[in-house]
C-alpha cells in the first residue's frame, strides 16, 4: 500500500529521531510512506518553487450527478457519442504525461458527458431509468446480463430518437488510428552530464595484452 502526504515547507520533519527544517528553496514535499512487513519507510519527492499547480478557477468544472448504475447503463452509448473528445484526452495524457497540461481536454470530456445525458433525459428518460434501476437492483456487482430486456428497450429508443447505435462490446478494444489536430509534442532533449569519459574508438587497432589472456575454468 502507498500513502501520500503533501505538507508545506514550514513544517518540521521528524524521521528516525532526527528533526530538521525543510530548505527554503522548496515549496512542497510529497512523502510516500510504503508499508511493508517492517513498518513504514518514508521516501521524499521534492517539488521546487518552479513547479506550478493549477488554480481552483482552472479546476472548476460541473460534475455529473449520476450513480454508478446510471453511468454503466449509458456507458457504451456515451463512449460512441463522445469518442473524439475521449480519444483526444487519452492521447494528451499519454503524450504529455502531465495532467496539468490536459485540463482543457478533461473538461471537454465532462462537458460532452453532461450534454449526452441531458439528451438522454429529454428523449429516453423512462427507458434509461428502468434500465439503470435494473442494473442497480438485479445484482450486487451491477451485472448487465440480467437486464437484457430493459437494455433492448433502451437501445431501441436511443436508435430511434437520437440516432445512436449501441456499439458491440469489443468496439473499444479494437485498434484505431486517431488523427489529432493537436500538434505532436517535441521530444525531450537528452540529459547532458559533465565529466563523462570519452568513448573508446573501436576502429583503432588493439595491442595484445601485456601478460596474455586469463582463462578461468569454472568447471566443477
Automatic annotation (TrEMBL):
Domain of life where this protein originates? Eukaryota
The UniProt record lists the keyword Mitochondrion: yes
Q: Where does this protein reside within or beyond the cell?
A: Mitochondrion
Listed under GO biological process in this entry are:
mitochondrial electron transport, NADH to ubiquinone
Q: Which GO terms describe its cellular component?
A: mitochondrion
Describe the task this protein carries out. Answer: Accessory subunit of the mitochondrial membrane respiratory chain NADH dehydrogenase (Complex I), that is believed not to be involved in catalysis. Complex I functions in the transfer of electrons from NADH to the respiratory chain. The immediate electron acceptor for the enzyme is believed to be ubiquinone.
Name the family: Belongs to the complex I NDUFA8 subunit family.
Protein name (database record): NADH dehydrogenase [ubiquinone] 1 alpha subcomplex subunit 8
Native organism is Cacopsylla melanoneura
Amino acid at each position: 500500500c502507498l500513502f501520500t502526504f503533501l505538507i508545506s515547507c514550514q513544517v518540521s520533519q521528524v524521521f528516525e529521531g532526527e528533526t530538521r527544517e525543510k530548505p527554503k528553496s522548496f515549496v512542497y514535499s510529497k512523502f510516500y510512506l510504503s508499508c511493508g512487513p517492517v513498518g513504514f519507510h518514508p521516501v521524499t519527492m521534492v517539488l521546487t518553487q518552479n513547479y506550478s499547480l493549477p488554480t481552483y478557477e482552472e479546476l472548476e468544472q460541473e460534475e455529473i450527478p449520476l450513480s454508478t448504475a446510471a453511468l454503466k447503463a449509458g456507458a457504451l452509448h456515451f463512449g460512441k457519442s463522445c469518442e473524439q473528445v475521449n480519444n483526444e484526452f487519452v492521447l494528451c495524457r499519454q503524450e504529455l504525461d502531465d495532467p496539468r497540461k490536459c485540463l482543457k481536454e478533461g473538461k471537454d470530456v465532462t462537458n460532452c458527458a453532461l450534454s449526452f445525458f441531458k439528451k438522454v433525459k429529454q428523449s429516453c428518460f423512462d427507458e434509461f431509468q428502468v434500465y439503470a434501476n435494473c442494473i442497480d437492483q438485479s445484482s450486487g456487482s451491477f451485472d448487465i446480463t440480467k437486464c437484457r430486456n430493459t437494455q433492448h428497450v433502451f437501445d431501441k429508443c436511443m436508435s430511434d430518437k437520437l440516432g445512436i447505435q449501441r456499439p458491440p462490446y469489443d468496439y473499444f478494444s479494437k485498434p484505431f488510428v486517431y488523427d489529432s489536430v493537436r500538434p505532436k509534442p517535441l521530444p525531450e532533449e537528452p540529459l547532458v552530464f559533465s565529466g563523462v569519459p570519452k568513448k573508446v574508438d573501436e576502429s583503432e587497432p588493439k595491442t595484445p595484452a601485456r601478460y596474455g589472456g586469463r582463462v578461468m575454468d569454472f568447471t566443477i
